[in-house]
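Write out this protein's structure.
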Amino acid sequence: MPQTQMGVVRWIANPSIVVARILPAEDGELDNPAWTKFVISGNPPLELVRLARPASPLPNQTRIFLYGMFDPVSLGPKLANGFPDPGNWNPLNRIEAIGAGQNGWPGVEGPSSSSGGGGGGGAYAFGVNVPVLSWPVPYTVWPTVGAPYAGLVCIWGSTQYSSVGAGAPGMVFAEIGYGGQYSSPGSGGFHFYPNGAPGGNGGTGSGGTTNTPGGGGGGAAGPFGAGSNGGAATTTSFGAGGNANGNTTAGGFPASGNGISGTEWGPLAGCGSGGAGSIHRINAAGRGAVFGGGGGGGAQGIVGTSGIPGPGGDGLIIITYTPLPPGMQAQILT
């Protein structure tokens, strides 16, 4: 069956806001009206746009990427969304999640003069043959945020996205990067369910009275293992970005170098490494790569200014299953 097209689900009023990308088992699956029935707070009208598919063959399988969304009105993330019943769901499936990477910290001047610490990388989680308890399936994907506390997760199978607990059947979740302040780095996402690995911590910034460099962002975890920690800065050297996915993707380098995105799920998605710290206040630190890389820390600023940190990489949920023939889904779920 042909696999030449992909579907992009996006807001009609704000087409730059993408809800999902669908790589179907065969092109005709994109005729399914369910793909514009995602449940999002505020009920923004959705459309599905067909585009040429990147080189990502998936024999007999459908793969769906679910993205974090910022609301352009509230300027906050869209939380507790709903994935619609596609009518061909297979209980034999694989659900994966990457927690969002944390932004790096700015370099500051004043009583607590320091360069910024790097942001933490996101955790990775996966579940196999995850049961659907009800439709639509609730989920939350965090765009990158400067989370000050632990416990925020990218999650499938629950409306709970904070302090989710130990996990339960039907759920898959991966914690986002969090914590840190000034020269103290952020922590990598540590919690995941039911299986997975933690993200890397950011690297420490450096104190001083002159232009000191920033710490590196932590790498995201992935199917091959944990993310690596970002490098710590000294008074003369920046911190490199942490590697992603069990050291399979190198971190950002040299100074202010952006993290690198892996290709674990083809050219559209992979685990992101951390951005490198900035070596001078006029240069922004490196970005944490999508998905889940931590941003680099900004170099120490001067009075009245802050060194510019790098943003972290957004979170992601990946769904892979073999579509069932029409009518088969209801029989199996019953």
